[in-house]
Amino acid sequence: xxxxxxxxxxxxxxxxxxxxxxxxxxxxxxxxxxxxxxxxxxxxxxxxxxxxxxxxxxxxxxxxxxxxxxxxxxxxxxxxxxxxxxxxxxxxxxxxxxxxxxxxxxxxxxxxxxxxxxxxxxxxxxxxxxxxxxxxxxxxxxxxxxxxxxxxxxxxxxxxxxxxxxxxxxxxxxxxxxxxxxxxxxxxxxxxxxxxxxxxxxxxxxxxxxxxx
Length: 213
Fold this sequence. Notes:
- This protein is α+β, with helices and mostly antiparallel strands.
- It has one domain (32-204).
- Helix content is 25%, strand content 15%.
- The chain has six helices and nine strands; from the N terminus they run αββααββββαβαββα.
- It has helices at residues 6-26, 74-81, 84-87, 141-151, 163-167, 200-204; strands spanning 58-62, 69-71, 90-96, 113-115, 120-123, 136-138, 154-157, 178-179, 182-183.
- The strands form three sheets. A four-stranded antiparallel sheet has the order 2-1-3-4. It has a three-stranded antiparallel sheet with strand order 6-5-7, covered by helices on one side. A two-stranded antiparallel sheet has the order 8-9.
- Strand 8 and strand 9 (182-183) form a beta hairpin.
- The longest helix is centred in the first third of the chain and has 21 residues, at 6-26.
């Protein structure tokens, strides 16, 4: 078999290398989906097991990992994803829709999770998460606003949640609520005599009237 001239050989090697580089860098990573959680999954921030923890959970796909990180509360989730050193590796992010779960005993099914970046959140609401005050995520803004009117809090988009807000989160609205885009409308929590439901979907559904005090 005759040898290729050096110029042709170099050209062939260059074309092959270019094709390999294009193939490696041109295809984005495959889309990730929410997965079922398990009672013995541990929170990536606090290390607590999901078993027995109240409130909505979250998942974060990180580049280079075969499984998502799991969080036992949305507060821990935001504490992780808002850290500058973690953001470059973030891929798909998911949170549980509060309208689809029993707050005290959240479902483990992947179907209860929604895209965290398009979800709407109620901050300073009085239902406790695994580690105390947490944010209640919803797929629907209208449902989130109804929840805030029932229980108090402020309705926020993903981009409005800041590390400072997460660090100072409480069960009641502060005197002045601030987010990434300025002052936020924050509703006062209802009086204790009204009571609170541990089933957000029950409080929001016309088929489930609010319990009497």
